[in-house]
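Suppose a colleague, Dr. K., hands you the sequence of a protein chain of 107 amino acids and asks what its three-dimensional shape might be. Before reaching for any lab equipment, you can write down a predicted structure in token form. Begin with the sequence itself:
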Amino acid sequence: MALGYDEFLKVASENGFDYFNNSWVSLGRQSTFDKATFIRFTHWEGLKGTMAIGCHNETGGYVGMCPYETAVLRESDTPDGAVLIIKGRAEESRYLEEIYKTLAPEY
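The predicted structure, expressed as tokens, is then:
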């Protein structure tokens, strides 16, 4: 998890999101992409997507592509507020949802 103050669109692009053919997509390895989802919680709104990343075993050998969930959120009450980046393996999605719901900006 990371917190920053750059522009939302810049942070979204740097973390694998793009606006393509009139919708948001998440970009992965080997030219893969998938539809991104707009999400909104009490104090945050932004994009959530699953990217394909390269996975390696414990000895460092490549084992193929794995899903990796990323969310880039911005404060919903101000256009130039904080930007929050949350990343994690797809099988941990339920834990990421709990994190989203507990975060509240300090004003």
